[in-house]
Amino acid sequence: MAAAGQVNQKRKAGPPKTASQKASWSNQADDREAARESSGSSSAVSDRATLESFGTKGMTSVVLGMLAALMMWAFYHPSDSTEVEQGGALGWCLATLLIAVAMQLFCVGRSFLVAQDERGSRDRADRAGDWLVDGIVCLLAGWIGYAAVTQLNVPMSSWEGTETIGGDWRAASNEAWVWIAGAVWFVGLRRWLSGPQARSSIGELRGNQLALLGLVVVGAVLLAAHALHQVHVSLPQTLREYKADPERVLAEVGINAPEGSNARMIFENRLRDGGPTATFALANTLAGLLAMAMVVVIAVLLPVLGNTFPKTVSRLRVGSERSTAQPETTSRPPIAVAIGLLLVAAILCLALKDTQSRAGVLSVLIVGGCVLLDFAWSSARGRRCVTALSLAISAVFVAMPLAARGWFGTGWISALPESVRYRFQYWEATWRMVEFSPWTGAGPGNYQQAYHRFRLPESHEIIADPHHFVCETLGAGGFPAGLLLVGLLAVGAWLFWRAEHGTNESMPVDLSAEPKASGPLRAAGSHAGFVRWSVPVGAGIGGLAVWILGIRNHDLPDFDAHLIAIPIACAAGWLWWFRLPDESSATDPGWDVRRIAAFALMAGCMHLSFSGGWTVPGIAVVLWTLAAMVTSSGHSFSLSGPFSMSRAEDSLANDSRLRVPDGRTGFRVRWRVVGSAMVVGLAAVTMWMVSYQPVTDSRRWMAEAQIQIRRGNLVGGEKLCQRAMEADRHAFDPAIFRLHVIEQAWLQRFAANPSSVGMSPRFEEALENAIQRAGNDPSRLQAIGELVLHRYQVGGEAEALAQAKMIYDRCQRLSPWHQAIAAQRALIAEAEGAPEETVRELAEKAIELAETGGVVTRQLSLQWILVVRPIGRSAIQQPVRQSAQVAMDALRL
């Protein structure tokens, strides 16, 4: 009460009377005014920070959602190697470029702007490494684009010799866009992950990257469930249908495989033992995704088990630096989380086993062992040793193609399993190809047609890629592309080593200085829900778009399989995105997301050292994302908490959002952002005009042509084929389809009037156009040659036989080790009246090629070739074939 009275007395007191009282009163008033101004300024800064935080979270959500939608699209429509060459990935690549422009202008551009303020806090070597990685990636994509452009100058209609290889511009451009889209994805994601908008608060960077890793796991679980459905339901049903009616099943899948042919044997073997493929074309490709996801789950499951059963697991761990975290810094997750992760691992493991991929299983065993060693050896020294061991193992697998040239000796290769020896044959053929064309190789998309010429005589498969990502790069862009890739791997490994051990060793290890956070996705503040839901929503939108377009285009995914696969994938997504973050801690030393991504990337590259898929979007997009995580720069690494920030760093990240460079520096940065966006936008426009629109229009006309032909309207079908040829002046399918339509019209006239013989000018023009567009591809030329021989069987035209001889002679020069082509040439020579000695030599050559390598599928008894003699009307329905073995035995007598 006394105090209250004193206050009231002071309030009732009048103004100061003396000069000293007046001065004191004035000073107190100034202090109060300054306090009010300071409070107002602080409030303004707080409001601005709130708005900046809201914009940052919104941009982060948009970026994660767009990336998730694109990745889910790639999982559903992976577009394997041959489909990429035919333009199956153009839509995905175009969407990636357009979204990248938006990211650059609204998200990545912001990262560049703020990054200028942080230059003083970053090491110069780190900045140089960042620009070096981005520069190498852009140069690699640019060189592949240049190699594609060079295919325009490759002669396509030379009947003399084979001085050049490649020449299919359409396939080259279609595949080159995958390389370009990959460079844009990688550089854009790296820059975004390095910017403060991705790590503006504690644990947010790790939470974003953990969400992307979860998308890889969820996509793999979706495809794994699909694969298990195929193994136990779809494939057994198809096998039963095939046994009941083989011809109908072969017609449905579009395979021409006469009874007793090697094509039918290969189809039956894959149907019985090929394994599941899910949405991919090959089981080995699916195994690559499953292997990477399996490694991610293992790397996350181990620390979860360590937190769930701390006393039991602590006995298995060696060292104390990473295992002595204070108990209050981590939470103990319930056993349900561990059980859920174990179930996810079981689904992935069963599907991986069913793929029968030795490369996939080997990569999981080796990298999984490294992950287990990294978890058990929980000291700083152990961390360094595991990193060095992992990099050394990766270097061995990268350098394996050198053994195909005898650099490490060749005696040990014969002791390897048969499937591995086949890989060395592929790699040696690739070296021959690159030595023939060192600057550009065969060009992107042209490897398969060039492989015919450079493969070893004992090789029996005609492969679409060399089953090693370094060799595939060499084949697509020659030695410059291969050197750029090896340089990129070396610089990336150096950046990872430096980020893990170089700069972090000088950072103080003080767990008490680390701020606490309840979870990586909840530590972002009041707007964390945006980030929390962005990846699931984006993945859902991407999957929904696939189903909507599937309904529109009558190309739905396997509905029965997805009735099971989608609920399982949703359960895995709920566990990863919503349950797991609640049970992890931002300072938990086991949650090093960059390190997890590095192990998964190691598994992917190890698998691609024996298998194809380097340019398959469904696999490549995962590799690009993991590589961006591993090589992204950031201040959030420490030995005490891999993705935790010190208070000073957190303050710097928060303050940097409020600073935008002004003056000359800001002007240069803004123009750099706008310029890069313009470059990507120009690439998107170029892709639309050069590739996407021509391929799309040509396919639309071809689809309508097929409808008209099924209705019996050959004239209308031919006109539509002509339109398809005009829409895409480099496509082969419309040309061969038009030639087939003209041939069918002639067969109808011949059936009505057998005197209708002689090649019409229209047929000759269509034949010349088809040969021109077939270029240096012996498989396409062989298809044209069979059509011409069929005409000879029906009409007996000498001109048709002469054309067939020229076509098969060129096929033999482009594919000198193909036994069926050699046998067909022998029959043509015999029909033309060549000397018996010449015919006998050709027959002996065919038999010799069939016996080389001792491969069953190369035997002449399984090769069916066309009879080369006039037959007449009985051959109108379909060409007459015979066993190549019987034909060659008759020629040798």
TrEMBL record:
UniProt keyword list: Membrane, Transmembrane, Transmembrane helix
Domain of life: Bacteria
Membrane topology: Multi-pass membrane protein
Coiled coil region boundaries: none
UniProt main location, coarse: membrane
Transmembrane segments: 58-76, 88-108, 129-149, 169-189, 210-229, 280-305, 335-353, 359-377, 389-408, 479-497, 530-549, 561-580, 616-637, 669-690
Residue ranges, compositional bias (Polar residues): 18-28
InterPro entries (alphabetical): O-antigen_ligase-rel_domated (IPR007016), WaaL-like (IPR051533)
Region of interest called Disordered, as start-end residue ranges on this chain: 1-44
Gene Ontology cellular component list: membrane
Domain (O-antigen ligase-related) ranges: 344-486
Name of the molecule in the record: Hemocyanin type 1
UniProt organism field: Rhodopirellula islandica
